[in-house]
Design brief:
By secondary structure, the chain is of the alpha/beta class. It contains nine helices and ten strands. α3 (97-107) packs parallel to α5.
């Protein structure tokens, strides 16, 4: 498969601390890649660099063959092609759910309000939140808010969906409903790069798993290899903390 998104030799430091040390990866259309690793391994920084929320120190990022890490590139134009969901829902508290969900579609993609609302309502209906469309976020549970944030990210049909530890801020009983939505998006062919600590979910949903340790890619491959029979001792040591 031809890679849609490619990173080659990405380096990123904050002060004298190197967070990413020559990370390379590729992501093909309709592929789901899970990035795993301990806290502080660089997972979130990697996603933020690929989404142009952080400027890289060295390396190249290509989207559809275009060098989007070139400083002359309009970052807002590139980010409009992405969808992103983070640990915390980041819904605007003063806006209703449907206004949160349609904001980017209307303001960035210039989708007519009627069309944006219709598309958003269809998605909210699908995940059981249509009756919450006019509510404000503080009237929703954490799981409902995170599902609304995912709908906001996919309503614009992004080329790549970045998911950064989207269940880490949720109570355990709410995790399943969020992962179920992500699994359905993956089954429908979404292109997803996700940082996650949900090993069983990565095993069942991802096409490939990438293990990041101290800012370097230590091991990557199919879940059946990396998560079940890892080659590297550092991977085995990390996975020993989990039951997959």
């Amino acid at each position: 498969m031809t890679a849609l998104l490619q990173a080659d030799g990405i380096w990123k430091s904050f002060g004298d601390r190197s967070v990413l040390r020559g990370v390379s990866l590729d992501l093909s259309v309709h592929e789901v890649v899970a990035v795993i690793g301990a806290s502080g391994s660089g997972k979130s920084t990697l996603l933020r660099c690929l989404n142009l929320l952080e400027t890289i120190d060295d390396g190249v990022i290509l989207l559809g063959g275009e060098d989007i890490s070139d400083p002359r590139v309009d970052g807002n134009r590139v980010r409009a092609r992405f969808g992103a969901v983070f640990q915390h829902y980041n819904l605007f508290p003063h806006l209703s759910v449907i206004d949160n969900v349609t904001l980017a579609a209307r303001k960035v993609h210039r989708m007519p309000r009627r069309d944006a609302d219709a598309k958003a309502m269809a998605l909210l209906e699908r995940i059981g939140l249509a009756d919450k469309a006019r509510e404000h976020p503080d009237r929703l549970s954490g799981g409902q808010q995170q599902r609304a944030a995912i709908v906001r990210a996919v309503v614009t049909d992004p080329e790549v969906l970045f998911l950064d530890e989207i269940t880490s801020a949720l109570d355990p009983e709410l995790v399943g409903e969020v992962l179920e939505l992500v699994q359905s998006l993956a089954e429908e062919g979404a292109t997803i790069l996700m940082a996650t600590h949900e090993m069983a979910f990565a095993r069942d949903v991802a096409h490939r798993v990438l293990f990041l340790d101290e800012g370097r890619v230590v091991e990557e491959g199919p879940p059946s290899e990396v998560l079940v029979a890892p080659r590297e001792e550092r991977t085995r040591r990390f996975l020993s903390r989990f039951t997959t």
